[in-house]
Design goal:
The protein contains twelve helices and ten strands. The strands form two sheets. Strands 1, 2, 3, 4 and 5 form a five-stranded antiparallel β-sheet that branches. Helix 1 packs across helix 6, helix 4 packs across helix 5 and helix 4 packs across helix 6.
Length: about 350
Amino acid sequence: MRLFCATTLLAALLLVAGCGRKPTCPVTSKKSVPPKPAAPLPSADEKALQQLGQQVFAAFVKGDAAKFQALTVAALAVPELETALRTVREKEAHQYIARLEAIPPDKRHALQLDTLRLSKAFLANPKTAFTNEWLELQVIIGELGKTQLQFFNNLTSTNAPLDWARASKPSTVIDINPQSDAILPEARVDLVFSAAGKSYRLQLSNCNKLPGHGWRIAENLRFIDLTAEAAAEKDWGDDLPAALKQAQAEGKRVLINFTASDWHPDCIALHDRVLTQPVFRDWAAQKLVLVRADFPRHTSPPQAQADANKLLVHKYAVQGFPTLLLLDAAGKELHRIEGYENEDSLVWVGALKKKLNPENE
């Protein structure tokens, strides 16, 4: 089960450090408190993010890979990036110590005690301690840079889905993550535009404001054909009882997708590479009734829907994202898929077909 949650540069930093955050993306529990609304971005940050979005878009229009790469975290010189991330780690360690020492010693659980120990050990000699962490971080950031460049090249090649030269001036939407950490601010920039009569969204899934370097792209990008997306969205419902009735009437199974649609990288990848592809949609229309239980960060579902999704999480003991369950018409679990390992749509659907009907499919 692939539940690693390095959706941000800070998360990757802490995973390498082995402290602070658990290396999983657990599903929200019944007792969890909804995150507080994010504070408005300072005007200078909003202006900087607007500018970053415009520069990224201009790079795509011109097919200028070097200009695009210069806007990413991976483009920073190694010594500068190492210093910036070490500064973040030091601030984070101080923050953890302050928070955990405010808890009475007899009330601290094992994870808190371990985090406190690791944080103090790090601050005893941060430069030396960070050297070992930096070796692994360099690999992570290097791979991110390669993935970002491949994304750019795929969208600006001769086989790209649109002619960027014909694209309209984009509308820019900036959204700060409600669970962002003030030590390393996070924001998402969406560039919405049209070309040849179709609408698209280029999403800078996560941008970070690094100490001394301003806002940069720090995660994979996403390109969405909004017309195709709207069609695919119609495939999915959010009412499991209604879906079970439909499945019984039509002789189908139910596939329920527990997802974090707008922030978890594996959920986004599964959506883009499989669930919106014709090979899945055409087959699912014949065999399945589709239900989504979503746990987004950037939007707020109706409270009744959010509560219903939490009940489903506990009913089916879902531990992380993405998790997909194949159910019979009575709601009994027949098969479970946990995580997504970047299979293409043909492989992923083929595996599910075998579970649905191993003899005839």
